[in-house]
Design brief:
By secondary structure, the chain is α/β, with parallel strands linked by helices. The protein folds into 2 domains: 2-197, Spore Coat Polysaccharide Biosynthesis Protein SpsA, Chain A (Alpha-Beta Complex), CATH 3.90.550; 207-261, no CATH class. It has helices at 40-59, 78-84, 99-112, 130-141, 180-190, 207-216, 237-249, 255-263; strands spanning 2-3, 16-23, 66-73, 90-93, 117-121, 147-151, 157-162, 195-197. Helix 1 packs antiparallel against helix 7 (237-249). It starts with a strand and ends with a helix.
Length: 266
Amino acid sequence: MHRDSRPNPTSIAPGCALALMAKLPIAGSVKTRLTPPLAPEEAAALSECFLRDMTMNFASLNAGGTEGVVLYTPANSKMLLRELLPNTFKLVAQRGETLGERLINAADELLSNGFESVCLINSDSPTLPREILETAVSHLARNGDRVVLGPSEDGGYYLIGLKRPHRNLFERIAWSTADVLAHTIERAAEINLPVELLPTWYDVDDSSSLRLLCDELSLSSDGDDIRSEFRSGFAAPHTREYLASLLKENKDLHTWGKSYLRDRGR
């Protein structure tokens, strides 16, 4: 079964790992679906901003009994990421060939090393509201086993929260399709695992979602038209500052930037 219950996230139990699935921001290897409209170097710089903002967001919950973790790839990037991220975050290398393998291996490792629960979170949602994170951890703090899922706009999920490493949840999933969330809920039903659904949010991985991000961060003149569920996001200061500079400096260099500014009346 699954519910959309949202308890008041005031009681957060200790021992929950907020674990960001991250990739070293190297030009040509990250955010490739954003090139174009961005150049590879710009996409990598934007990815770095996402990492900085999401870890900043996670760190704000530390006093409530959570701990920040960055699950990184490639395996030799630990020292480079250490320079980018807060020292309070644990760095753990991802293991596995497929996304499903990397997710279940991460959950298994963290839960086996003392964490009572774990939230595996993508690195493409820099404005993910703090209240959503608090609600996810609050669900996991309750008695009884469950899986917590944060549905994304594209049919996947931006967050999966676990108290036990249920391998079944990551098997027979059509990764990178619009069926990921539905398949995961089906896998949970097969083992009678209750599902808690968080509010829908979005991943920034293509031109359309990049426009949505710009609207949410008030970088357009029609921000009042943004859908109501995307009004309460995290401020993401690094991302906002960098996107603002791109839209200003590159308006004569990138077709997408020019059309974006023209369409928004800037």
